[in-house]
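Backbone-to-sequence.
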């Protein structure tokens, strides 16, 4: 297994960094909290060819893979950018897997002439046997959208909350449960009768979110291969993890630079043990998350059966790494790190919202823990006593590196 970046991937990463550097996204994030509109990054994404990253070349796309998409998302996370790819890429990937009659729509999506949004419907696990959606409020998850009819008579009804990229999307792609209780991949026109999207803004003003309401909305049932509907969920998890890794990297870089230049009692604050230990922990979590992320990217193409666990582990580790890094960034910068004018609170806001979207970091951690326990049961072994009691220091996502 070789997880080193190819020359093409390094060029893609550098090009993404250059494209995003042309827009002052961090400054725009602060202005957005004062009511200013966020910059529209979709034209820049179109120019860079990102909408077609996961669409086959014969259908007008770039024909690249999850690894390449994650590299772009990582660069977006560095500068708190939202090029609307978190919703578009899983949706376009699911459509491409079920190409067939969807080819004309895919060509428009590949060029960015149209934009898709993924409706995040969570696959079952060992605790909840049904497909479900994130709650509008509270903790209780809602039921997945329902599908009635077939062919041109197919209709979808359901409510999905906190959907990334939903406002303004031309196509909504996700999963609905048919009359037999089976999941089916579906696509709904954003402007279709019975489909409505309410834009919402919570905490991180840079993130495009919407509440989607479907009431007997006309739908196209996609002929997607078995497993692709669930894979779209885990791809969205991995892309969000990649974005988080990029934000952690910036938090670390900025904090280290400040710790070197800020002096107190005649010496840089980075020489003090408390600062060194905190930043070293950020680095450890960053490298842990990036390793898991690259493994998930490899598994998406070369070991599909391992992708759900790998993506969940990456999401868990990256979300927790960003939460820790954002807090450490505020701490290292002392008083100024908590002020409105500093960038640190913006990364903290991104961390708090990101770790709650698409099932949340906790949900990903539980999937990893369930997989580890299942493997332990299958092998006839038991976890150490301290882990059974919940006192072990290792996080389930870190344990997953041994998988």
């Amino acid at each position: 297994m070789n997880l080193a970046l190819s020359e093409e991937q390094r060029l893609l990463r550098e090009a993404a960094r250059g494209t995003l550097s042309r827009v002052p996204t961090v400054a725009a994030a602060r202005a957005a909290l004062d009511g200013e509109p966020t910059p529209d990054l979709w034209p820049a994404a179109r120019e860079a060819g990102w909408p077609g990253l996961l669409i086959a070349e014969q259908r007008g796309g770039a024909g690249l893979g999850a690894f390449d998409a994650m590299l772009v998302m990582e660069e977006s996370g560095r500068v708190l950018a939202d090029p609307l790819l978190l919703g578009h890429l899983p949706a376009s990937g699911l459509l491409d897997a079920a190409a067939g009659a969807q080819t004309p729509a895919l060509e428009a999506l590949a060029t960015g002439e149209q934009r898709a949004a993924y409706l995040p419907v969570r696959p079952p696990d060992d605790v909840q046997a049904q497909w479900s959606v994130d709650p509008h409020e509270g903790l209780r998850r809602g039921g997945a959208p329902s599908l009635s009819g077939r062919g041109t008579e197919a209709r979808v009804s359901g409510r999905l909350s906190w959907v990334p990229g939903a406002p303004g999307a031309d196509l909504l792609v996700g999963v609905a449960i048919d009359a037999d209780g089976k999941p089916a991949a579906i696509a709904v026109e954003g402007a279709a009768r019975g489909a409505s999207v309410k834009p919402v803004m919570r905490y991180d003003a840079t993130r495009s979110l919407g509440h989607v309401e479907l009431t007997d909305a006309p739908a196209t049932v996609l002929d997607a291969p078995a497993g692709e509907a669930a894979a779209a969920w885990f791809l969205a998890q991995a892309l969000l993890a990649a974005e988080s890794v990029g934000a952690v990297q910036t938090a670390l870089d900025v904090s280290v630079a400040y710790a070197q230049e800020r002096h107190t009692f005649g010496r840089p604050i980075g020489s003090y043990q408390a600062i060194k230990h905190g930043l070293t922990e950020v680095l450890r979590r960053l490298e842990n998350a990036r390793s898991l992320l690259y493994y998930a990217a490899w598994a998406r193409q070369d070991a599909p059966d391992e992708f759900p666990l790998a993506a969940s582990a990456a999401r868990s580790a990256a979300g927790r790494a960003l939460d820790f890094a954002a807090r450490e960034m505020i701490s290292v910068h002392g008083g100024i790190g908590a002020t409105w004018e500093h960038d640190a609170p913006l990364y903290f806001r991104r961390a708090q919202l990101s770790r709650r979207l698409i099932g949340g970091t906790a949900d990903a951690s539980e999937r990893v823990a369930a997989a580890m326990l299942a493997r332990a049961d299958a092998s006839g072994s038991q976890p150490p006593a301290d882990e059974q009691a919940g006192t072990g220091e290792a996080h389930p996502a870190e344990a997953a590196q041994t998988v």
